[in-house]
Amino acid sequence: MRSQVHAATGGLRIASVSAFRPLPISFGASLMSESTQETPVLTVSQEGPVAVVTINRPEAMNSLSRAVFEAMEKAFSGFGEDVLVVVLTGAGERAFCAGLDMKEMASGEGITGPSDDSIGFGHTRFGLASFQGVVIGAINGVAVAGGLELALCCDIRIASTTARFGDAHARVGLLPGALLSSLLPHLIGVSRAKEMALSSRLIDAATAERWGLVNRLVEPDMLLEEAKALARDIAKHDRRIIMAYNTLIDENFGMTYRDAIDNEFRASKEFEARH
């Protein structure tokens, strides 16, 4: 849903990413982990038109720090036309993403990316909007608050059977700043969204699938391979039609039925004229 909004353990084995070749992107020392200058907070690998982006802060539940925001923006804006689909996941077995780094938030300094601040938090959340392809979320563990928002920014979500989801904004005394209060009710219904938002309770993977928050569940050790297989199925199609169709679905999601039908007809004619 990225173009529209612009729009407790997991067994994911990140080692399987090693089969991918590294992207020719250098994140530099400023994007290294806060505790060391040797461990990158984000890893990127690529095989043909499919890339895997992994948030690499397992010791901090893959929470979103300033360095992660910078790395995300640089990674997604750095993909060329050779990359059509990105699989986004988290390192380790505990979390996909636990939201914003609360220690950095307590410092009083902003930790969001520059484009989030200057263009709009919802429009460029986490830097994903700069990428015009498809993003598949491989939800390997806990996705809470900003981590849930990050998952919602993905076009497609596949989860581990041990994943869990929650909205902790009420518990920490914050209102969501991106798409959570608008997109979540559309996906799972107003009453269910309010249950998650107002109680701060976590829901398990089976509930998330039943409510429509994720497409399907996969055993932890097969999650990344399943997400990459889906990515390859998408990437084998013409780049132009995938980008146009993905955008059209997002545009129509926010329209009335009648307006969406008219928009589809207009988009189809324009696409045919261009190609």
- CATH architecture title of the largest domain: Alpha-Beta Complex
Distance between the termini: 25 Å
Structural classification: alpha/beta
What is the CATH superfamily classification of the largest domain? 2-enoyl-CoA Hydratase, Chain A, domain 1
Number of strands: 11
Taken in chain order, the helices and strands follow as HEEEHEEHHEEHEEHHHEHEHHH
Oligomer, anyone?
single chain
Which strand-content bin applies to the residues?
15-25%
Q: What is the helix content?
A: 40-55%
User: What is the CATH T-level topology of the largest domain?
Assistant: 2-enoyl-CoA Hydratase, Chain A, domain 1
Radius of gyration: 18 Å
| Uncertain stretches | 3-36, 115-124
Tell me, what is the CATH class of the largest domain? Alpha Beta
Number of domains: 2
SS field, number of helical segments? 12
Major pleated sheet: 7 strands, mixed
Give the overall shape, derived from the CA principal axes: globular
> What is the spatial order of strands in the main beta sheet?
1-2-3-4-6-8-11
Organism: Sphingomonas oligophenolica
Family: Belongs to the enoyl-CoA hydratase/isomerase family.
Protein name: Enoyl-CoA hydratase-related protein
Pfam families: ECH_1
